[in-house]
## 1
Amino acid sequence: MPTPALSEAPAAFLLEERARGVSPHTLRARKGDLDKLVAHACGEGWEGWEVKPRVLRAFALELGERGLDPASQARILSTTRTFFKWLFETRRIAADPAAGLRNPKLPRRLPAFLTEPESGALLELEEPRDFPTSRLRCILELLYACGLRVSELTGLDLQDILAEARTLRVLGKGSKERLVPYHETAGRMLEAYLVHRGAFLAARELPATPALLINQRGGRLTPASVRTFLAKAIERASVRAKVSPHALRHSFATHLLNHGMDLRAIQELLGHASLSTTQRYTHLDLESLARTYESAHPRARTRS
């Protein structure tokens, strides 16, 4: 059992966190993290929270030795830093020994994406027969054809469709506007949706709205609704689970790069400020990459 010197401060910290309006989920997580810290302190015979930085580094090492994954270690250490900062600010300790405590290096996670056959199966799931099916097909086509963020898609107005140029005027992050082309198939699905959209508004006697994508009440469709539609479509198309609308944006970038588009051109289409961000969105097919390398590098081709 922890001594009062070790147990009272975490309890007081969590009470203050609750009073500040921290969510119950976060409070539960932080309590679990602090329980691990207190258990370590008891095992090492700490007399209180006035400890040296090397003592906390030993705690961090123990987390790794226990086999916790890097993300869990990082969360526990983040709670530890927050707790010791609070101890210092409330003058329970004279110095903050956790200020320089480092997280373990997290493995780089590649964003989820669809293969080309999976993308095709998803896009061809629905024919635009009526308002709901034409809307779903339009959503899927534009996400994949243009690499849009969901918020960019739902933010489109009718005036943003430059039909003659087959281009969308998109308002991205930081209110930066960009022009994104769409291909002929996406254009046909967009036109089909607009026909059903007009008929739907007329049949329901709903007022005209500038929003491209609308719900059953004639209001602008929300990103949450798009995510719900896509989740159901993915399940029906038997595509892998845990694929978000953003996965179509990743797929857009990956497939263009695999077919030879310049990375900087893809950066412009995605609206990324940094090329390094674009690189994270792309998943090169290694066989395709090897073939491109063999055909492109002057020293890679064999000579007779």
## 2
Amino acid sequence: MELISFFDYRKKSTVSKAKKGDKEAFLALIDENRLNIYRVARGILKDTVDIEDAIQNTIIKSFQKINSLKQDEYFRTWLIKILINECTQILRKGKRVTYLSENSDTEIYNDSYENIDLTKAINSLSEELRVTTVLFYFEDMSTKDIAKLLKISDGTVRSRLTRARTKLREIMGEVEI
């Protein structure tokens, strides 16, 4: 119990330092959350360039607005919320752009734990189902935290997860018994 409290205190202390303008503390927080940021962005966006843009914009905005973070212990949730907003903005812009040539067959990821079929199945989900699924399964966020983050009810989160699981079973070809 004491060990957990020490780590919580250390993290809070790092966030406090970052809020006071300590760039090293901010970079340490970003480094600590980089895999989470990447997985969420990859779960929402399909294009590598879009993923990189979303992450870069998230880091810039979070650095500029870190003083608006009210509770230090929610840094990760706050950062992911900024990321989701950035991803949503990129998706909206992408719908208006027409590409002359599109290489959708070439998806390049360097994630050694990736299941390509599952990734494609998740990417085929609607945005609301995809975001909820990524946050719950890849970021280990509780339904309550997802509800707060997305500003929806806990029941809506559970409903989206149920619908996402059903669609993923259909896509992956699994038969329910």
## 3
Amino acid sequence: MMANILVVEDETAIADLILMNLRLVGHNGLHVSDGNEVMVNIEEQRPDLIILDVMLPGRDGFELMKEIGPLGIPVIFLTAKEELADKITGLKLGADDYMVKPFATIELLTRIETVLKRYKASGHGFELDNLEVRFDEHLVLLNNEQVELTTKEFMLLEILIRNKNIALSRDKLLELVWGFDYMGETRTIDVHVQKLRKKLHLEDRIKTVFKVGYRLEVPR
């Protein structure tokens, strides 16, 4: 399966090697070397998988993982750190795998395929009541009829789905959908939530959490 893979790595030689091998096996490789540019790139490109170095200029991989995790994008940490505590930290933050430099390229490619297959098998879709969401196709169906959502509405819906039954603050939602440097007000979230409720008949599903934010309630 061809995938868009974001390589977050500040060592040019290593990044070039990974990108070359990704293209050889049919993937589309994208590269970012500065931790401060990662979240903006993710918002613009919406990669299928992220290879994330821990030691980066700007923001490190562990810090970034706290923001990437709720987005539901699989992550493979790639780092020179061999300490067990670092591996545990990465996995606890939600990474799908962890590789230590130096590494064999064939092993990295194999792990990428394994994670992609597992992620694909876990479902890129969501169904609730009469609503169906197909993440890969960026498609939303209500009673089998397509509903048009803006890019931000779809991103907000996906984050609520990925974090179903979890209360997310307005600030966190604003950060995840609009970016950590967005200067707008949290009122933006309220407006978009109201639109989602109306368009998708989710008035009884997207709950307002008093003095916090919102939670998508689904049967456990």
## 4
Amino acid sequence: MAGRRRAQETRGLPARIALSGDGPIGKQIYEGLRQAIITGLLPPGTALSEKDGSEMFGVSRQPVREAFIKLVEAGLLQVVPQRGSLVRKISQRQVEQGRFIREAVEAAVVRLAAERIDDDYLQALAHNLEAQREAARRHDHARFLALDEAFHHLIIEAIDCLPAWSTIENMKAQMDRVRYLSLPEVSPLEMLIEQHAEILAGLRAHDPDAAEAAMRRHLREILSSLGPIAQRRPELFELDS
């Protein structure tokens, strides 16, 4: 076992990735690998076999195979003949398309939330926003991004429309990779927190127009950061035709 772990480390693979303990094992493996790809722990071009995944998580190959299928669907993994599975490079086109669809869904969601949201969800969003500020003070980018995701998820929960999250989850995978790369130089945390505060202000005022405008501004931020990041780290991006 120690020899296999050393071999994985030599190839640039993490020896072990911890499971979250929340939900079916296949879902936990998918989320663990998804996070590792988004944060660059598994960078573009990394070869990844079912055997590697099995050893990283200490599980059989079957749930790893299921997670790989979902990662291919999310555009994070690709199967290359004679080479196996590789972590995909970032597609600017997929980032732009995913952002477009996400904006359409979340703009509709936040309008409805502005009409329906109750005090409990407003309070939960306010607490989340304070936690974002604390993460920014600590320069904890991974924590901030987790809170950012939770902020958007809470708004969807507030209108009891969780299928909306399922709709955008895969589409935003490429966006999440760019968002992680954009912190903090291209997209300062303080700016993103202020954008969240504007969304919350629209919800508190029960003003659908203000909430929607704030959400659209926030989700379009990635368009400003995508070009500079692709120029700075071209090796991470596909050459879209």
